[in-house]
Amino acid sequence: MDDIKFDKNKFPLKNEIFLRKEELGEIIAEDRAESRKKEGVAIRRRSRWRMMRVYACCAVVIIAACIMFVTKEVTVIGSEMSDGQLVLPCGSIVKLNNDGMLSYRPYMWHVTGRKVELESGWAQFAVTKGDGFIVTTDVGDVSVLGTTFDVSVYADSMKVKCHSGRVELIPASDEGLSLVLTEGEEAVMSRGEVKKPEHKIEEKNIVEQEPNPIYYDAALLTEVVEDMEEAFGIVVVNKQLCQREKYTGIIYPEDEDLSLDMVLGACGFEYEKSGEEVTISRIR
User: What is the pLDDT of residues 127-159, one digit of tens each?
Assistant: First the structure.
């Protein structure tokens, strides 16, 4: 066996067929690698699109939740109120009887205008000065500007008594039949008619306001808080939360709790008292 010699030219280790197979194998391997690469790119692209859809859905949900929160309507029932009195974001005061039901949007108050809906019962309004105030009912609207008046809602009509200032009654079916009441006048309004008796009612003031209120018109909330600190001898904690807020309304230097409720509640804050310290935080 040692004497046998092979001629490499006659017996090549790699013939043409073997080399061709090897070349084809390399081509197939490259094709598979390219295919896997493209597949990976496609998977990553689909993953990105899925994540974008998820983010978009989350954004829509968050925006919808914010809109629902901001436009949330608050309904107040007279029988469920501890003192039957409601302070609106502008400082206006509403007094309801046990059958009274009123709704409004506190977070849209300074955006859509001062507007409340009296659904049933009797209510008296002491309205602070501002850019108008509207009470809506199924029968019609009462438009006022800085006044005190009563509204009683019945099945198909309503009665309005003006104690001070001026109010305008606007029937729901015909705005051309509007009627203006002045101090001491009353009227009954149905969907298409307004009647004013010849006699005047006796002037009375059911809603007692604290004397010498302080009025604010788009004032910086930090300044209003500082005024309350000075008036009530308190220290407000977390005042930095108020830096970008503004307040339109009033405070009563003789009533600390009422003023804190009006100012902080109107600007979306809640508070806790501990002695002379008042800690504020955002309403969640």
Answer: 877 778 899 888 888 888 667 888 888 777 888
Over the stretch 30-62, which tens digit does the pLDDT of each residue have? 777 777 777 777 777 777 777 777 777 777 777
The tally of CA atoms less than 13 A away on the side-chain side of residue 212 is 4
**Per the confidence metrics, is the pTM higher than 0.70?**
no
DSSP 92: -
- Give the CA diameter of the chain: 146
> How far apart are alpha carbons 47 and 35 in whole angstroms?
18
How far apart CA 124 and CA 163 sit, in angstroms, is 10
Distances (CA, A) of 101 to 4, 70, 157: 117, 21, 16
Angle 221-232/256-266 helices, nearest 10 degrees?
Answer: 170
Cα three-residue angle 214-219-85, rounded to 5 degrees: 50
Tokens linked to 144: 């006022």
Cβ-based neighbours of 211, under 8 Å, separated by 6 or more: 254
- Whether residue 137 contacts residue 108, with contact meaning beta carbons closer than 8 Å, is answered with no
Backbone angles phi, psi at 70, to 5 degrees: -65, -40
Could you give the CA distance from residue 167 to residue 240 in angstroms, rounded to a whole number?
A: 40
Q: What ranges in 80-236 are assigned the alpha helix state H? A: 109-112, 221-232
Please say whether the beta carbons of 151 and 132 come within 8 A.
Answer: no
Angle, alpha carbons 97-74-137 (nearest 5°):
60
